[in-house]
Design goal:
heterodimer, A: alpha/beta, four-stranded parallel sheet, 8 helices, about 30% helix, about 15% strand, B: alpha/beta, Aconitase, domain 3, five-stranded mixed sheet, five-stranded parallel sheet, globular, binds iron/sulfur cluster, lyase (chain A)
Chain lengths: ~200, ~500
């Protein structure tokens, strides 16, 4: 089975300059009752997006038609909290293909990578530049190149390289899947079991 | 606050050539099936815990691949997140919750997995039942689609939370593809003040190093204060490792650990037991083991803790004041102000004396028998405050039964608080137990995120003793002042 492929995107971005965005904000627990992976995008950032009467909150960025795009740019320590993969599913299902932050929580990062959603970790300085640029021009194009491992503000040409585990990079580019990889090592697993 | 930390950062390549081995590395190395340059390790998982929320899509994935569960006997299931904690014998009212729990039952039957579901004498919060059944043991590896799997590390095990794709991975292969994290040691030494316990220690540590301070690390807790804790206390500490961003936390096994495991339902018996104990005695970090980071704290510095914000790093001693926005890192001031606004608090506020609406004693952090005993001891002869809603929720069916055997339920009832039935309850707004918008809840759980306990609920994390004191007074109080001299040391 293959996962979603990510190689290269150029897109405007949606700014969310809040630190420590936790998984309960990304997808509140009461929406975790679905038993499939689809449809979580409707409830992405639910309690920031909608009030208690389910009316859109005008001051939240996802309700502001000025901002749109495949890239979500967020404050540091993005995705802290629970292991719910529903957070990655929700972001992906909403239409984002990459999340940029200056720091990611571990489990979120792994979950995103397993779902073809690229977490791009940049320096605090570059993150600040990204926010400035997006607020200066909401159409500002952000380029993310996984093969070359860089993120670039197209208008100014400023760019920064980002880290990614080489195995995970290969998985994303080729649509490989962890389970296939371990299954191809099944003999070793059985050997290991026999040995202990 | 940061001046209380004695830090000693050493940057070293991971893996070989580090001198002695850390406890973490000993266990990790014993579970590596295959290690290949440029690839994450294939790590063998001894026991996989599953529950109703993060497993359905994984079972679905297996079906699509036409795969069985590779080692169903090493998989343990329970229903905890969605279950009601009242009238559990009746069908779950909420349709989607009922559907999810029913689906777990069907999936377990189809794939041959033992399920401790509703009505089973072993049912309970997944991180409470593993240890109490003797499934959780030193030197083993545990994963679960739940970040508080770190709890099991209290036994000197490697245990951490995983996402649903990884749940599917472990079901399919009993292995996990995982890169070795960095290792951190956190030492706590000295004597705790009366009324200060494990929960205060961990809330204090997180307040000092922030909700992201442990990211990328696996933490070993050490020092004489940690050693002096019961297994329940150690579980409380390891449980919240994830709240500082760490993958997990662990504590070297000792007499306390061995005595706890001994005789439990699934603990090794006879010769197996002797062999196991001999192995467990080799599980400690070598004298010359090198950690990537070492932090030390003094037990004497720790007060009963409360949180004032919307992440577990936003905690203070109960007599301290809420930090001023101007003193916060400039890049974080907007988020900080947003958090205070959400909590209805202001710069320099004191929480002492603040009226609260709800008290929740429960969750995988503090719902074990020892927690309930401590709360009962405090509540004995006292009454719950007028107008405060108090929920005491045992972590498992076994804890509930034990509490009843010991008459704790009678003590609670006399205080005006009925003992509920086991489940995650108000720890997360997923089942019937939700905190209404705008209300303050003093909670023994582990997360104070916005809306965690229900939309717009306001959570103040605290120890079971501080929560019990809030139940009686209807306010945030310094529990030390309500305790008799030299008693009830947490
Ligand atoms: S009690 Fe809370 S933290 Fe623990 S497993 Fe349940 S929901 Fe998660």
């Amino acid at each position: 089975m293959s996962t979603k492929i990510f190689k290269h995107i150029i897109s405007p971005a949606v700014p969310l300059p809040i630190e420590n965005i936790d998984t309960d904000q990304i997808i509140p627990a009461r929406f975790l009752k679905a038993t499939t992976r689809e449809g979580f995008g409707n409830n992405l950032f639910r309690d920031w997006r909608f009030d208690s009467e389910d009316q859109p909150k005008q001051d939240f960025v996802l309700n502001n038609p000025t901002y749109a795009g495949k890239v979500l740019v967020a404050g540091k320590n993005f995705g802290c909290g629970s292991s719910r993969e529903h957070a990655a599913w929700a972001i992906s299902d909403y239409g984002f293909e990459a999340v940029v932050s200056s720091f990611f929580a571990d489990i979120f990062k792994g979950n995103a990578l397993n779902n073809g959603l690229l977490p791009v970790q940049v320096s605090d300085e570059f993150l600040a530049k990204l926010f400035d640029e997006i607020y200066r021009d909401h159409h500002a194009q952000i380029e993310i190149n996984l093969e070359e491992q860089f993120i670039k503000i197209v208008s100014t040409g400023e760019q920064e390289s980002f880290e990614i585990n080489p195995y995970k990079k290969a998985c994303l580019i080729n649509g490989y899947d962890d389970i296939d990889y371990i299954l191809s090592n099944k003999a070793k697993v059985e050997e290991f079991e026999a040995r202990r | 606050m940061a001046e209380n930390i004695v830090e000693n950062k050493v940057s070293l390549p991971t893996g070989e050539g580090r001198g002695g081995a850390t406890l973490f590395d000993k266990i990790w190395d014993a579970h590596v099936v295959s290690s290949k340059e440029g690839f994450p390790d294939i790590l063998y998982i001894d026991t996989h815990f599953i529950h109703e929320v993060t497993s359905p899509q994984a079972f679905d994935g297996l079906r699509k691949r036409g795969l069985p569960v590779f080692r169903p006997k090493q998989t343990v299931a329970t229903a905890d997140h969605n279950v009601p904690t009242w009238d559990q014998h009746l069908p779950i009212k909420e349709e989607l919750s009922r559907y999810q729990v029913d689906m777990l039952t069907r999936n377990c039957a189809e794939f041959g997995i033992e399920l401790y579901g509703l009505g089973h004498p072993y049912q309970g919060i997944v991180h409470v039942i593993g240890p109490e059944l003797g499934i959780t043991r030193p030197g083993c590896t545990y994963v679960c689609g739940d970040s508080h799997t770190s709890t099991h590390g209290a036994f000197g095990a490697i245990a951490f939370g995983i996402g649903t794709s990884q749940v599917e991975q472990v079901m399919a292969t009993q292995c996990l593809l995982q890169s070795r994290p960095k290792r951190m040691k956190i030492e706590v030494n000295g004597k705790l003040q009366k009324g200060v316990g494990a929960k205060d220690i961990i809330l204090y540590i997180i307040s000092q190093i922030s909700a992201a301070g442990g990211t990328g690390y696996f933490v070993e807790y050490a020092g004489d204060t940690i050693r002096s804790l019961s297994m329940e206390g150690r579980m409380t500490i390891c449980n919240m490792s994830i709240e500082m961003g760490a993958r997990g936390g662990l504590i070297a096994p000792d007499e306390t650990t061995i005595n706890y495991v001994k005789g439990r339902e699934f603990a090794p018996k006879g010769e197996e037991w002797d062999k196991a104990v001999a192995y467990w005695q080799t599980l400690y970090s070598d004298e010359d083991a090198v950690f990537d980071s070492v932090l030390s704290f003094k037990a004497e510095d720790i007060e009963p803790m409360v949180t004032y914000g919307t992440n577990p790093g936003m905690g203070i001693g109960v007599t301290q004041h809420v930090p001023n926005t101007v003193d916060v890192d400039p890049t974080e001031q907007t988020s900080y102000a947003k958090a205070l606004n959400y909590m209805g608090l202001h710069d320099n506020d004191t929480l002492l004396g603040k009226a609260i609406d709800y008290v929740f004693i429960g969750s995988c952090t503090n719902s074990r028998i020892e927690d309930l005993r401590q709360v009962a001891q405090f509540l004995k002869g006292k009454k719950k405050a007028e107008g405060v809603e108090v929920w005491i929720v045992p972590g498992s069916k076994q804890v509930q039964e034990q509490a009843i055997r010991e008459g704790l339920d009678q003590v609670f009832a006399a205080a005006g608080i009925p003992l509920r039935e086991p489940g995650c309850s108000a720890c997360l707004g997923m089942n019937e137990d939700k905190i209404p918008a705008g209300k303050y809840c003093v909670s023994t759980s582990n997360r104070n995120f916005e809306g965690r306990q229900g939309p717009n609920s306001r959570t103040i994390l605290a120890s079971p003793l501080t929560a019990a004191a809030a139940a009686v007074t209807g306010r945030i109080v310094d529990v030390r002042e309500l305790l008799p001299e030299e008693e009830l040391v947490g």
